[in-house]
Amino acid sequence: MKKPLAVLLTLILLLSLTASLTFAADASSLPVTLTPPEHISLTWLDGNDSPTTCVFAYSIPTTLSLFQKSIDDAEDKDAFFAQYGLNDAWFLIQIDWALDDVNDSVSGWHYNKYWDGGADCDLGRDSGYMYHYSDWDCVDYSIGNMTETINDAWILRGVSIGSLNGDPENGTIGIKDQLKPEQYTYNYEDEALSIDFTKHTMYVRARFVLVLRDREDQDSYYFSAWSETASYGKDAAKYEGITAKDLPAPEISNLHMTDKEFNDNPIVAYTLSVPDSLAKMAVEASAHGGGIFIETEARVKGDTDWTGMGNADWLITPGEMDCALVSLISENHPSIAKDTPIELRCRYRCSQSGYDDVFSEYSKVLTFETTEIGNDPQPTPPAATETPTPTPTVEEKKDDRCPICHFCPQPLGLCIFIWLLIIIVIVVVIIVVIKVTKKDKDKEKQ
Asked: Nearest CA to 217 among 119, 118, 87?
């Protein structure tokens, strides 16, 4: 019976290899290309929140922001996901940390293979649902808003006795097992772990996770590369602060009327380009208790004074930025007639903890003709005076045809001819097993 067993084991191996190849093929056709956080920054909260809490700020690549925006803007989300063979998709971020030496076997990077999840287990767990990370390891951290250029996370927060020791019964790693005794102190009365950052350096890196839920509601995980490393403490570069000279003037274009309204008055939109240098500064400012924001001003052409637009997008986001025009209504302009020329400009404001706010130069002035403001409850948008730039789109719908035969529906993700081959192999194996078994019985009778 050894030969039939060997054949069966070979068949099982072939089937497992086929499944693995199928999974790899799926990974090559993601709806968006995954890239890591482009800019990251880390700062300590100086003992606020908990003795070790740090703020980790990071930027979202434009391609990922636009893909998330296309999801948010889709009127029929089921149809949107169906074009990729999905029921849903969303992003997470994993944040890894190390103290003093990223390559140290104890306090170095804490990523392990379980952070990758799998077909039968969640991120950070094995197939038996045992945990393989500590309370400081961010294996499935939620992202505030993927459509915003800058996001941040409060990490390395308070350590209870349970977090310090871990939970061996369910596999949770104790934070004390990820640090050396000389790197920290622990106050058992207050349940507070402290690290002296004048003597030690914290390092952090991150990567994006794209979770795809297929039409059978099965989840698959895909990962970007790891980002560069950010640091805070003894060996980290000191933050010098952003000055007005560092800030570029906003790059705006394509000012046009939209079909949206605010308080029965029109909303205009313009396209904001976010240069890499600004995104990097915005990450630094966010990590240091502030941020870089965009301020929009407008006026009726011919007026001297500009009006700050109170109902305008102010968070930096690549793509279209909305600005409601209702703020132009004043004693001098109780109403504004249709086709009145309106001018608009923007500037950046940077706020940082411990520093005064600083401002960039203004952008170029854009001009357009508005619909009526103030009296017309249902204004009709006129044609834009500038040629709109094409809205960035995600990758085109993938070809649903079978890559092997080019016509079958690929039942369960495999070409129908592969299924036929598998069935034939199984039948052959069964026949071989029956014949060998019969031959063995005949020998026993003899």
From this structure: 87
